[in-house]
Amino acid sequence: MREVIDVKPMENYQLLLTFDNQIKKIKDMKPYLNKGIFKKLKDKQYFNKVTISYGTICWEDIDMCPDTLYETSVEL
């Protein structure tokens, strides 16, 4: 399982992710913004509070599987 070791919020609801193998990828979060708990991410201040916990990204009560992040993001 891959782990996220760094995350930086970007413009247009994208995240710059660095994984434990040093590969950097961009995750576009726009497709999630109208779904369930992810609707909270529409608030840019909230979105920009993304952190890392236990090898994945999270916002207070929202997190995502690191393997899903790795497979569904675009490598730089």
Quick take:
With 76 residues, this protein is mostly beta strands. It has helices at 44-47, 66-72, and strands at 4-10, 14-19, 24-28, 51-53, 56-59, 62-63, 74-75.
Task: Supply database-style keywords.
76 residues, mainly beta, NE0471 N-terminal domain-like, four-stranded antiparallel sheet, 2 helices
Plain-language structure description:
The structure is a single chain. The chain contains two helices and seven strands, in the order βββαβββαβ. It is mainly beta and about 80 residues long. The protein has a single domain (about 5-75), classed as NE0471 N-terminal domain-like. β1 and β2 form a beta hairpin. The longest helix has 7 residues, at about 65-70.
Give the beta-strand count: 7
Give the percentage of residues in beta strands: 35-45%
Question: What is the level-2 CATH architecture name?
Answer: 2-Layer Sandwich
| Contiguous uncertain segments of 5+ residues | none
Cα end-to-end separation:
20 Å
Q: In order across it, which strands form the biggest sheet?
A: 1-2-3-7
For the largest beta-sheet, the strand count, sense and barrel status come to: 4 strands, antiparallel
Helix/strand order, N-terminal first: EEEHEEEHE
Number of helices: 2
Q: How many distinct folded domains? A: 1
* Helix-strand category: mainly beta
Q: Name the overall outline.
A: globular
- Overall pLDDT score: 96
Portion of residues in helices? 10-25%
Going by CATH, what is the homologous superfamily?
NE0471-like N-terminal domain
Oligomer: single chain
Radius of gyration: 11 Å
Which CATH class applies here? Answer: Alpha Beta
CATH topology: NE0471 N-terminal domain-like
